[in-house]
Amino acid sequence: MTSDQSPRFDYKTAWITAGLFVAVLAVYAWTLAPGMVRGDGAELQFTLARGGVAHPTGYPLYTLLGWLWAHVLPFGSMAWRINLLSAVAGAGAVALTYAIGYRLTRRVLPALAGALFLAFSPTFWTQSSITEVYALHIFFVAAVLYLLLLWRDAGPRRPRFLVAIAFVYGLSLSHHRTMLLLAPAILVFLVLEEWAPRLRLGSGARTVVQNTDTSAGKQAREGQVGRNRSGGPAEQRVARSVRSVLVLSAAFLAGLLPYLHIFVHQLSRGRTVQHVVWNVILGGDFVGFLGLRSNQLYVLWDLPRQQVGLFGLAAAAIGLAWLAWKHRSVAWLLGLSYAVNVVFCLFYRVPDIHVFVIPGTLILAVWAGASAGLLSPLIDRLLRSSPPLHGRRSRLPALTRYTLEGALVLVAVASFRHLPAVQGEVSQMDGGIEQQTRDLLAYPFEPGATVIGSWDTTMAARWLRAVEGVQADVRVIAVHRECEWLIQALNSGGPVYMTPEVQITRLPEGYQFEEAQQFGKITTRPAAYTRLDLQLHPQVTLEGVQRQGQLLVLRWLVTGAPLAEDYSTYVHFFDAEGQPLGQQDKGIGEATCWYPPTTWPPGEVMQDLFILPAGTARIRTGLYAVHEGQIEPLGTDATIALP
């Protein structure tokens, strides 16, 4: 460790870091989603606004911090303020990446290049522009890495930094569980920096003692044994070690305190401790995603290349080689962190694996900046080999260094080309969901009504109801493929409305499909229909038909034994002159809540809903199955003139 590596306060570096933070924050604020977003971000916005618990693994620190942030910040809409939290965390991670690079290279431009590689990597940029957990996660990754470097260079103040690392690492785990992936690299780094030198020193000392056979040496050793037996320095070292372990454990556990929020929230709602630990905190449902991915090359090569480009990957390889040469413990810290992250991503088969690769992007960015470390010995050689000109040393080596470092910065800045793609991703996450949901909730629902929508619409509606009080007396639930929840909603007494994206088109008898502007509507009111009793097959009867405006309901009845396989129902539409207007088929599992024909109870009517094209006067309907690409009808079809 050299004297210039001491962690004394550097005002120049602090100003550059602060300036970089402000500049990157301005870019992220420019691309920030303006309000409510879709997907998990919508659920997180709702959770942060209400101070609840998010989907597994709960993210307690994020939900608590987000609630405080959303209610304290004095400007902007609440949804925008929650989005802004990601921008601030992302800009903080970029600033810390610069600080890491500068501490390793002591060069401003290479450290800046590394920070910009991260700042403008498309996935991280997008995650810093919407409500999501990953920007804050990367902030903690960068913070832990930077604190480890400070601890390495701190000299006598190392214990303080170790306590800070324990606390921040515990705090990071209360946000995102994948911080555990850093643990092996942290342990290796601590061993290499702290215990390995001591072991080497101890071995040398033992050799000296063994080769010393003087009476003075024997007396010294005998005196040392006596002090150890009487509670001397050895016992004091043990006591200090025990105190250190207790202090570090206390700091680490203090960082985990936000998890109490999950226990208090969930237990107060009747959840068991087992459910909280396994399903929420540990995310037990995610076990099903474990297994080797089929697209390993996507994780190993495509994603890193997309984030930092080919030049960035080449620079990262050079930087890793330089660290292995000059900072071996840091090379182990970053290299093992990257390797563990890649292995995890290879065996975690979630669709959005690109967001889990972001810690690897940070490490690639640091390596890319560190590539400039190889310039120093090359420049020194040039300085020694170039003769003085008119008694003065040539400026060419320094100009060469700055030129190469500036080129590295320009390559990193070129990542700004991802701006259109990032704006497109953010726009897709926004997608006008707020205005769409406001328009839907402008409908005059009856008291006690239930609205069934997609996940995105439901979360936006819950936000408007809870935060702004819009249609607060209307129940809004997200659609599921299972039908039990729908029957419970229908039997609750009020009408059920379906948003346009919900395809509930088959229900048992006793429920009535109705038209309601842009909604589908289901009630329990009885409705008149035309009785047909057309026997299409010994087991299947078309019991009746009902027409209501553009809605057509066919009533199927299975007699005798249940059907042996799941058939598709179909309707062909014709106008008064017999010209075809189109057809609709209900394939297996196409509807949101789908009762397959093999589950139709014999003797009970099942209703199919179809939408009539304008001008429909008659229909032809029946059932069929597909075997080896060939359509096989079930019995005969029926042609019906509509009432």
Globular, elongated, flat, extended or rod-shaped: what is the shape?
Answer: elongated
* DSSP helix fraction: 40-55%
Count of DSSP strands: 15
Mean pLDDT: 87
Strands in their spatial order, largest beta sheet:
2-1-3-6-5
Rg (CA only): 34 Å
Description:
By secondary structure, the protein is an alpha+beta fold. The chain contains 22 helices and 15 strands. Strands 2-1-3-6-5 form a 5-stranded mixed beta sheet. β13 and β14 form a beta hairpin. α3 crosses α4, α4 packs parallel to α7 and α9 runs antiparallel to α15. The N terminus is likely disordered.
Protein topology:
Elements: H1 11-30, H2 40-50, H3 60-72, H4 78-105, H5 108-119, H6 122-127, H7 134-153, H8 158-173, H9 183-210, H10 215-229, H11 233-255, H12 259-267, H13 273-281, H14 296-326, H15 328-346, H16 358-370, H17 375-385, H18 396-413, H19 419-430, H20 433-441, E1 450-453, H21 455-468, E2 475-478, H22 484-490, E3 496-498, E4 506-508, E5 512-516, E6 519-523, E7 530-537, E8 540-548, E9 551-558, E10 568-574, E11 580-586, E12 605-611, E13 618-627, E14 630-633, E15 638-641
Parallel strand pairs: 1-2, 1-3
Antiparallel strand pairs: 3-6, 4-12, 5-6, 7-8, 8-9, 9-12, 10-11, 10-13, 13-14, 13-15
Can you describe this structure in just a few lines?
The chain has 643 residues and is an alpha+beta fold. The chain contains 22 helices and 15 strands.
List the keywords:
five-stranded antiparallel sheet, five-stranded mixed sheet, alpha+beta, elongated, 643 residues, 22 helices
